[in-house]
Amino acid sequence: MILPHVLLGVAVISTGLFTGLLMTVLFFFERALRDLSGTEFTVVMQRFLKITRTHPLNYGMVLISGFVPIAVLVILRENPGSPTFLLALLGLLAFWCGPVLTSRFVAQPVYGVFMSWEADAPPQDWREARERYFRANVFRGLGSAVAFVCFVVAAITVPL
To answer: Model confidence over 83-119: pLDDT tens digits?
Structure first.
């Protein structure tokens, strides 16, 4: 079964890169953001989001991590109780429930809020919006990390 190995390898690489980017945001970028004033935070986030929000690499990693495991599940559909199938399914669910849905329904609306602010006069509640963004990143990071681990273990357990 070479194809499941290859597909899970692709999912591992993509999800690993995505998780690494999220962990960089969580452990380094957010730490720097905490010390900024409202004006500085607004300027940094607007510049950051202008680049990253629609970058093709972001879309590529999300699409690969979110859809390649579906192909693995289709290939392994004859053995739905196998560890590989169950781990791939769990990883897929973790990725969709963590980064994908949280991004769509929490992070993206907050990004819209950040982009609407005037840099020289952020609203009084700017810290609350910043905290929503930070909490969304924790949830996205956990979901992506769980998916990554599941895909790694699933790749190891694929029968030869």
So the answer is: 999 999 999 999 999 999 999 999 999 999 999 999 9
Q: What angle do CA 21, 27, 28 make, to 5 degrees?
A: 85
Average pLDDT, the chain: 96
Number of domains in the chain: 1
- Both tokens of 50, joined, read 């202008």
Q: What is the pLDDT of residue 1?
A: 65
- Structural domain includes residue 125: yes
**In a domain? residue 159:** no
Conformation bin of residue 62: beta by default, left when phi > 0, alpha when psi is -120 to 50: alpha
Residue 160 lies in a domain: no
- Record the tokens describing residue 143, joined without a space: 């979901």
Asked if residue 15 is part of any domain, the answer here is: yes
Report CA-CA distances (Å) from 78 to 9, 71, 137.
Answer: 21, 13, 36
- CA neighbor of 151 nearest in space, from 43, 78, 67: 67
pLDDT at 160: 75
Distance CA 68, CA 61 (A): 10
- Whether 59 and 100 have beta carbons less than 8 Å apart is answered as no
Q: Tell whether pTM > 0.85.
A: yes
Residue 72: which domain range? 2-154
